[in-house]
Amino acid sequence: MKAANVALDYRFTGESGKQIRAAGAELIASKPDLVFAASNVTVTILKQATRDIPIVFTQVSDPVGSGYVTSFARPGENITGFQGFEPAIGGKWLEVLHEVAPGVKRVAVIYNPNVPASVAFLHSAESGASALGITVTAAGVRDAAGIDKALTEFAKEPNGGVIVTPSPVTLTADKRTVIIDLAAKLRLPAIYPNPPFVKAGGLISYGYDQVEQWQGAASYVDHVLRGAKPGELPIRAATKYEMAINLKTAKSLGLTVPLQLQQQADEVIE
What we know:
This protein starts with a strand and ends with a strand. The chain has helices at 17-29, 40-49, 89-100, 116-129, 144-154, 168-171, 173-185, 195-199, 210-225, 247-252, 259-264; strands spanning 2-3, 6-7, 35-38, 55-60, 79-83, 106-111, 135-140, 160-164, 190-192, 204-208, 236-237, 241-246, 267-269. By secondary structure, the chain is an alpha/beta fold.
């Protein structure tokens, strides 16, 4: 695809690390002027593949803790972009879930153990759990079968809830459906990282504005193509967060969503 004097070469890989690695290798071999990437898994693979070709990322969590950049102010090397979730978001998800479902005393955190940022989300949820009287259970999963097994086992005891963290294992449309259907079947109140989960029947979501992220990243692509050095462009953090609530799902779980929380929400589905 060409826009003015810019040629765009796309690769869509889904959740497969093998496919992402193969696509990354193809792109790097073509010697592009810049590679644009979304997700921690993709950036991990691209950073291993090149230290010369500029990389601009979006929707990447904890880029410093993940080892992609040296600091927010001066990323260094050939990479920069826009941070999605910060590590402390795990504690915020726990607080919001507690507010919408105060009867929850046990929370399973679905996360990808191979992604450092996902592990950080788990740890921040664990850190805030005792103050809320909640016990956190780590549910490390790598595929849909793992999600089914982990949540089915977790739901054998009462008063459970779920935090679904973002990763290729959870964000694809088919995995999203699996998780939402399973949470409904097991009657587990769950909080998700973005509104599409709630629109598809999930209870509540809290996450950053993805449009803002992509627009910002597009501006960085423009800067780099015009000669800016990626390592000198500061990492930008998300500044706008949005909440969505599905009242129909809440009712099916026997929950009454506080009016104050509904008023705070950006979208309420009835």
